[in-house]
Amino acid sequence: MSQVILFPIQQAPSIAQQPPVFKAFPDYSIQYGSKYERGLDVAEIAKRVRAELKAQVKAKQLPKAKYSVTIDRFSGGCSLDVKIDQVQSHHLMLNPKRVRFCHQHPAENPLNLPRYTEAGQTLIKGVEAIVAAYNYDGSDTASDYWNVNFYSSVFFAGSFEQAQRALILEWME
């Protein structure tokens, strides 16, 4: 005959005795752009960004330029990129001090000199604000956690920067 061994049943510890609960994932707050609409496809967002850029140029809030809005879809999500070219402005977009430094010291990195002038930075930030209005962001870069509606970038075309660089170097001589 087999013997059955009974163990005494312990009561659950009181709330004061329970160990603290650690969450596996922290609470992420999500910031929504002012024009964000759930379920809106990135292609439709690109159309709206193009229309808004056109309206801003017409209202003279942005300089006349060629604003190329493109999208890309990939396994990790999608992106919306704005390339700025042929800016019609009497302001330089590239920082002449940085261009001069890079020309005179090609092996050094000018970390203390901004890449763009204030006019260039203002233009980039203005276009970034238009794009960000349609996005949401609940990312935590410290833990490499990304949660966005779409990835985005705003940049000057390489050919435009090269032409400005050549112009600045010509003025230096």
Q: Descriptors for this entry?
A:
173 residues, alpha+beta, 3-stranded mixed beta sheet, two-stranded antiparallel ribbon, 5 strands
Account of the 3D structure:
With 173 residues, the chain is of the alpha+beta class. It has one domain. 32% of the residues lie in helices and 19% in strands. The protein has four helices and five strands, in the order βαββααββα. It has a three-stranded mixed β-sheet with strand order 2-3-5. A hairpin with a 2-residue loop joins β2 and β3 (77-88). α2 packs across α4. The model has no long low-confidence stretch (mean pLDDT 87).
Mean pLDDT: 87
Q: How many H/I helices?
A: 4
Strand adjacency order, main sheet? 2-3-5
| Tally of structural domains | 1
- Euclidean distance between termini CA atoms: 106 Å
Number of strands: 5
Structural classification: alpha+beta
| Strand portion | 15-25%
Segments where pLDDT lies below 50 for 5+ residues? none
How does the overall form come out from the CA principal axes?
Answer: globular
Helix % is 25-40%
Which secondary structure elements does this structure contain, and how are they paired or packed?
Layout: E1 31-32, H1 42-58, E2 64-74, E3 77-88, H2 96-104, H3 118-132, E4 136-137, E5 151-156, H4 158-172
Parallel strand pairs: 3-5
Antiparallel strand pairs: 1-4, 2-3
Helix pairs in contact: 2-4
